[in-house]
Amino acid sequence: MKHSLIVAALLQLTLHLSTGAQSLPEKKLASVALVSDLDMIRTSVVTLHPGLGRFEPREHFLHSLDSIRSVVAGRDSTTLMSFFRMVNPVLTKLRCGHTKFFSPMKGFPFYFYTNSLMPVIVRFDDSGGLLVTKSEYPQAVGKYITQVNGQPIDAILRALRAQMFVDGFVRSSADAQIQQYFSAWYADFIQQNEGPFTVALADESNNRTSIDMKGIGTEAWQTLNRGSSSLSTHNHLSFPSDSVARLRIATFYSTQGDKHFKRFLDSAFTAIDQRRVRRLIIDVRGNEGGNDALGKELYAHIALRDFRYYDHVEVKVRRKKDVPHRDNAYLPRFIGLARLFIRKDASGRLQFRKHQNLGIHHPRRKAYTGEVVFLMDGLSYSVTAEFLAVARHQNRGLFVGEESGGAYQGNSSGTFAIYKLPATGLDLGIPLAGYYPAIGTEPEKGRGVLPDVATRPSRQDLLSNQDPDTVASNPGN
Questions:
Q1: What total number of domains does the chain contain?
Q2: Residue 315, in any domain of the structure
Q3: Which of 200, 225, 250 corresponds to the end of one domain?
Q4: Would you say residue 422 lies in a domain?
Q5: Does one domain contain both 244 and 361?
Q6: Which domain covers residue 459, as residue numbers?
Q7: What pLDDT score was predicted for residue 11?
Q8: 78 alpha-carbon distance from chain centroid
Q9: What pLDDT score was predicted for residue 334?
Q10: Do 164 and 287 fall within a single domain?
């Protein structure tokens, strides 16, 4: 199970552990109970998380968590919202995008002030400005946010970036998440009351204006957000010209099963072979992951030679009984059987030896051998980032767009232990496997796959909801 499936697992957990505390945001919780939650977080992460210390020293996380513990212990009580806002940025110091910290209040990521969300949809354009692309206040559309309630947008963005769970130091991932749910994140981590919002704006010529906006509820925000992306949400093949094929892989997960996905790939590449395509565009923008075996299946259809996909898969514990605080955790049913395939390597690290992406793999019969262009962005994450890392290592094509959303050197993901913290009712998802792609030395630790041709949508692209991928689609480039 990878990134796109953890939310479903957490929804199941809500039912499985329905007896956990369901605290209101403003309710004050006793410090002794909150300290117990923090101690559970510390013990569970140290025992289980395979990526602790992978991208930066583990002490950065541990010292920060201990500092929060001291602050909480020094008070009589703390509200759920304050606790959430203090602990969330500490968990981001794990530098793991698959670690998730969920509030019990509402659906992800609408936790607080869900009846008073800022009524805007925003996107970063190629200038780096935060552009309003939709709003219940039409006069705001096409303008850049410069302040909210007197706070400069740069300060707001710094605060939100510190709250985003990302692999390593992948800036594109943080910004992709921020623009995806800006109003929800603002409510979760910055907003202080029900509003209204005083939003300062600037147009292209830097002419300034200010609008007082009344907040809207979650459903109204989601309705406003509908249709905000030009990207297709389903996998499909098209032919922009006789010599160009465009393969849209929106997800590595199929509700109809892995066999359905594989049949789609077989059919697509048969059609590509019959058309004698010279350039294949593989569009994985916005693809947050799915089943990791399907990333390897896609690469086998474009591989030029035998290849390795995963170098190794690490875990921290072998037996179910080694999992701390098991009574508060949801664990996959098969975790007990996994121990049969876990062995120590020469350095004493535990490795899972049964993953189907390990070993030597062969190109598919009639694999595509022509030119490949990969379209990627900050949401090209998890399985998608692994696929892109292997393709980069194999020098398989041209990479266009933004830095991939996952780290080039791999991630911690797979299956999860999901804890219900007793005092707060917060859910903490801890990945149990560390994935290491079979790649060479990374150019910069903790970064994603960097583009050969960097592109971001222009203001006009965003306002007209147009796809700016002309570099990839033009065979003459």
A1: 2
A2: no
A3: 225
A4: no
A5: yes
A6: 236-309+357-408+443-468
A7: 45
A8: 29
A9: 76
A10: no
Same domain, 143 and 206: yes
Say if 272 falls within a structural domain. yes
Q: Does a structural domain hold residue 426? A: no
Same domain, 211 and 302: no
Strand order of the β-sheet with 279-283 is 236-241, 244-248, 279-283, 371-376, 398-401, 453-454
pLDDT value of position 474:
58
Pair (211, 254) in one structural domain: no
- Residue 154's CATH number: 2.30.42.10
Put simply, whether the predicted model's pTM sits higher than 0.85 gets the answer yes
* CATH code for the domain of 289: 3.90.226.10
Q: Does 385 share its domain with 464?
A: yes
Give the pLDDT means over successive 10-residue stretches in the chain (477 positions).
51 43 73 98 98 96 98 96 97 96 86 96 97 98 98 98 97 96 97 94 97 97 93 94 96 92 97 95 97 97 98 94 93 80 91 95 96 98 98 97 96 94 95 95 87 95 83 51
> Final residue of a domain: which of 171, 196, 225?
225
Task: Note every long-range contact of 453-457, with CB atoms under 8 Å and residues 24 or more positions apart, other chains counting.
Answer: 453/398, 453/399, 453/400, 453/401, 454/401, 454/402, 455/126, 455/400, 455/401, 455/402, 456/124, 456/125, 456/126, 456/402, 457/123, 457/125, 457/126
Encode 150-165 in three state secondary structure: CEEHHHHHHHHHCCCC
Same domain, 256 and 387: yes
What's residue 472's pLDDT?
52
- On the 0-12 / 13-18 / 19+ scale of CB atoms within 10 A, 361 is buried
Whether 395 and 258 map to the same domain: the answer is yes
SS3 per-residue string spanning the chain: CCHHHHHHHHHHHHHHCCCCCCCCCCCEEEHHHHHHHHHHHHHHHHHHCCCCCCCCCHHHHHHHHHHHHHHHHCCCEEEHHHHHHHHHHHHHHHCCCCCEEECCCCCCCCCCCCCCECCEEEEECCCCCEEEEEECCHHHCCCEEEEECCEEHHHHHHHHHCCCCCCCCCHHHHHHHHHHCHHHHHHHHCCCCCCCEEEEEECCCCCEEEEEECCECHHHHHHHHCCCCCCCCCCEEEEEECCEEEEECCCECCCCCHHHHHHHHHHHHHHHHHHCCCEEEEECCCCCCECHHHHHHHHHCCCCCCEECEEEEEECCCCHHHCCCHHHEECCCCHHHHHHHEEECCCCCEEECCCCCCCEECCCCCCCCCEEEEEECCCCCCHHHHHHHHHHHCCCCEEEECCCCCCCCCEEEEEEEEEECCCCCCEEEEEEEEEEECCCCCCCCCCCCCCCEECCCCHHHHHHCCCCCHHHHCCCC
